[in-house]
Design goal:
The chain is α+β, with helices and mostly antiparallel strands. The chain is built from 2 helices and 4 strands. The protein has a domain at 29-88. Strands 1, 2, 3 and 4 form a 4-stranded antiparallel sheet that branches. The protein is globular and about 35 Å long. The N and C termini lie far apart (52 Å).
Length: 101
């Protein structure tokens, strides 16, 4: 068990209810990216009028484990009373990939 896994609370079935369910056509790797061999998470946290981008390594090369850890971390942040998280299920549009009008 890694240091991150030990720091996470035990997840009960209702623990993940604090984040909205992903639509059926959602990217299964939303909020994840691979940097080298390890998976990382990135999302935005809002506290009142302030917002902060949160990024950190999930310390695993296994995508299934990275998805589970992502869901646990998003749920932890969603439970905080003074925070709101932005969850984007669709891939971000890139200016480079847009067709010219």
């Amino acid at each position: 068990m890694t240091r991150i896994e030990r720091s996470l609370p035990h997840t009960e079935p209702d623990f993940i209810q604090h984040i909205p369910p992903a639509p059926a056509d959602a990217d299964p790797n939303h909020h994840l990216w691979r940097n080298g061999r390890l998976w990382w998470i990135a999302f935005t946290v809002h506290r009142g009028h302030q917002q902060e981008r949160v990024r950190f390594s999930l310390q695993t090369a296994d995508v299934a484990l990275a998805r589970r850890r992502r869901d646990e971390f998003l749920a932890l942040f969603a439970q905080a009373e003074d925070l709101q998280i932005s969850i984007r299920f669709a891939p971000r549009r890139s200016g480079r990939n847009r067709k010219a009008a």
